[in-house]
């Protein structure tokens, strides 16, 4: 493991920065009602879907772009300079993997998610079912049949619109309405695809479900939507990974993830976000402005977010949980690492409505280079949320004297039975820790890798195995060159 | 002349009219400064709760009242008995009135007089630390303050008796008061200052703005007791600047008020500085008490410490917003912040927002906040020993607050605050 880290250290740069030459069907740049109609038509959507899109779009037009509230300036986004649809020119319905464009398969192999491989290993219960989203379109979902046997629906969002309109109508926008914020409204208007997952009553999903997002074409934005519904007494663990090619333009990623957990259900959502962060001088990179929110609608339900954020030029991301059901539980485990010119503003919102609700927040920020890393979180205990309990811990680690680490917790308590604790610390890697490692023949760079991994362990331990390894490597690579 | 604050703002738009006040011989600020302040008020307007700094502090309530501008006339002030052996300074309805007692190396007078006797000190500091463009309330204060207070502690002077400043407010009608204070502590000086805000239920709005300059090697203790009754509104700004090797130790005690917003800002312009900000807040009835602290670590090797505790009763809301800024050069900074709160009623609310903004890597900073109810186990323990529910609760609350009250080093003041605290629990 250590050797691998060292190796990765040496070939520093962003290693997912390749592009794939695939013929793609891309819309002209620009956004208006016609574009939305065309998009909807292209996807052969029912009338109600188009209505939803137009409603979102009209609402979006009335909104003002949020700006200047965070610490960092960023170039203004020209929403007319973005193409809102880009799809690999493949048939939308594929019977088998053989029909997938071989170039595309190669891309996924490079990404380390060999769909072929997975297919061969069918039946191994520890395997992962993958929904791969390329630019804006879901390319291939594996293991569908296996899952279908259990009654689990796992498919692209577009397919779900066609095949399970009742479920989509019922749940879409339930947690993140299109009126929620500027980017949620934009997403509502132009979202192209994403994943849909439904776990029926009493089913424990036998494998990890995973979506892999990749932005490929230039000049496009990625707007996907993920909807996960866990019915009563069900369980699912969901993984999300993202990469993008190196480009010197900024690309926008404005996604929505909605999770609904019914009575006694549990959803575990893990993300390894590794969008292209821009080069050493801060040129290019993805603007990652996403809205992620879960709703514990039933009693005793649980939603857990785990994220490892190493990519994107700018990240605004606050995976939240609304604890509506009594005795429901919300968790947030996060590692956010910024290097060079990256800016991350991430955290969570825990909204306690139900009785005996509990939430835990563990956030670990690491800043290096000239980056800024902020934790911004809200813990809200509403009146009537009797015996609500929250524990938050936000630690920041600074590497170098040009970066910044900030903590902005908002704590609002309106019930006297609530118990809320918040702790935050900021420090750097101790000279003594490094000395200890050096003395035992561990190079400074390797020692930092070790110490950072130790610092993040609490969070990394929450990730499923496959992801944990990837995340550890990612942390090491992202820190490359930050040893001063 | 009856004007509401809103009218006041709109009159601000008419600059020429407002500037006629420059002729007021009691306002120490010059034509340019007042002009700048009024212009700022005109541009900014009054903050709403959309404003990040006023998210939990709804100042609207202030503007629903019809405030009359204050005249010189006021009813006989019911002075609370003086219990502390001190140099007593009286600020009545926002204007400097008198001082009794003196000490070597200590100058106390009104700002207009000081402008003549201590021209250099006043010119250098007044309005330089609390800039009129830093907030609308400071701007209003700058434009309308009259007969401000000037306290000057000469170089190396050790003042044995505390300087007890009584801010007494008891106007006949609903009023806006604009007290202004400048305290300059010379290098190597040592002084204790007590701000005692007292009113017997008067209806008023205060924009009290103080500037406190702590010179090199100086030691300043600053106690604030706010107990102005349930009709008092105030946005109170205290700007402290410290030089190298100085110590500033502040403790704030708030027992009543309808809307109290304290902005306590400390800027560390030097090395090896120590600053402490402590606070004990009791929220009763419908009070909204908002404490905003800001500590700016601009230079290396400084230590700061904050501890705020709140007890919220009835329908009160307590806000604690503490910000620690550590600038790029401020290596070897130690900054700690802690906020603890107890909710005593279902209708009370507590909002805390401790913030760290850190740009230097070799620092130790932490903050912690906790909110909860009175510990049931501790309560049970006491009850099991035959102590009644009410007394047991009181005992626990006292234990919670004791740590802060004990920070007062003047015995007579300590007892007075303890008494006020016990009274406020009833």
**Poorly predicted ranges of chain B:** 9-19
Share of β-strand residues of chain B? 35-45%
Number of domains of chain A: 1
For the largest sheet of chain A, list the strands in their spatial order: 4-3-7-9-12-14-17-20-22-24
Instruction: Determine the mean pLDDT of chain B.
Output: 85
First-last Cα distance of chain A: 24 Å
Largest interface: A-B, 34 and 36 residues
Draw up the topology in text.
The complex is a heterodimer of chains A (484) and B (426).
Chain A: H1 2-10, E1 24-26, H2 33-42, H3 47-61, E2 86-88, H4 102-111, H5 115-120, E3 128-134, E4 137-141, H6 144-149, E5 153-156, H7 157-163, H8 165-171, H9 182-190, E6 193-199, E7 208-214, E8 224-230, E9 235-243, E10 250-253, E11 256-261, E12 266-273, E13 285-296, E14 302-309, E15 314-317, E16 320-323, E17 329-338, E18 343-346, E19 349-352, E20 358-367, E21 372-381, E22 389-398, E23 404-413, E24 419-428, H10 431-439, H11 444-460, H12 465-478
Parallel strand pairs in A: 3-7, 6-8, 7-9, 8-11, 9-12, 10-13, 11-13, 12-14, 13-15, 13-16, 14-17, 15-18, 16-19, 17-20, 18-21, 19-21, 20-22, 21-23, 22-24
Antiparallel strand pairs in A: 1-2, 3-4, 5-6
Helix pairs in contact in A: 2-3, 3-9, 7-8, 10-11, 11-12
Chain B: H1 5-13, H2 15-19, H3 31-44, H4 60-63, E1 68-69, E2 87-92, E3 95-100, E4 106-110, H5 111-117, H6 119-125, H7 136-144, E5 149-153, E6 163-169, E7 175-177, E8 180-185, E9 190-199, E10 204-206, E11 209-214, E12 219-227, E13 232-242, E14 247-256, E15 259-268, E16 274-283, E17 288-297, E18 303-312, E19 317-326, E20 334-343, E21 349-358, E22 364-372, H8 376-384, H9 389-405, H10 411-424
Parallel strand pairs in B: 1-7, 2-6, 5-8, 6-9, 7-10, 8-11, 9-12, 10-13, 11-13, 12-14, 13-15, 14-16, 15-17, 16-18, 17-19, 18-20, 19-21, 20-22
Antiparallel strand pairs in B: 2-3, 4-5
Helix pairs in contact in B: 1-3, 3-7, 5-6, 8-9, 9-10
